[in-house]
Amino acid sequence: MKVWQKSLISTIVLSVFLLLAMGSEPYHTDTTDMRIVPIQQGTVAEGIRIVAEDGSFELKGGERFTSPFQNNIWTGYCRRFSNNTLLTQAQDALSCGAKKVRIYIGDRQTPLYGVLMLNSSVGSAYGAASRSYLIRLEDDKIRHAQAGNTSVSYELVKYKRTGYWDDGRRTSSEATQYTWVLWYSSYPF
To answer: At the top level of its lineage, which domain of life is listed (predicted)?
Structure first.
């Protein structure tokens, strides 16, 4: 056997041993309760009235409401909403079932245009936001929208992510997701 053949065989054998020595990455199983749980009711802050463009619902400030529709942004295509890009995702929300609305603030006759997304919750969510919406709009964001810009307001729900590694170690962490999101501006979406 020639020297180059011995070198090649040695390199191949060494490579196989190195690959076997590295082993595999531990496998993680996610056990988070992602069962979809509808949020049945909510409240809009005083002085705000939200009316569907198609006339299918009206949410009046200070009054409890039954959720007129539900979105699911927990799974699939609609799972991509993030704080980094939320301001620009009104059209994505519409493709996920959000509704176009008009927002009346106080005594002002001219409404703001909006896109409202009412998300469901999941079994591992906890806290008041997992059971009821509280739709509030900050004054500075209202002024920003009235000046012709797009504003976005939302509420987050906390949920517990759980799982375990194949070696038996358990994992647990806290995460958040949007329960409702409202994009609004003085211009239509």
So the answer is: Bacteria
178 has pLDDT over 70: yes
Please provide the DSSP assignment of 130-180 as one string.
Answer: GTEEEE---HHHHHHHHTT--EEEEEEEEEEEEEEETTS-EEEEEEEEEEE
Total-model pTM: 0.82
- The span from the CA of 124 to the CA of 26, in Å, is 25
Cα–Cα distance for residue pair 109/162, rounded to 1 Å = 49
Cα separation, 87 vs 78, whole angstroms = 15
In a domain, 21, yes or no: no
Environment class of 131 (CB within 10 Å of its CB; exposed 0-12, middle 13-18, buried 19+): middle
Residues 27, 159: Cα–Cα separation, whole Å: 23
**Distance (Å, whole) CA 93 – CA 80:** 10
pLDDT 10s digits, 102-112: 999 999 989 99
Q: Is residue 4 part of a domain?
A: no
**40 lies in which domain range?**
26-185
Domains identified in the chain, total number: 1
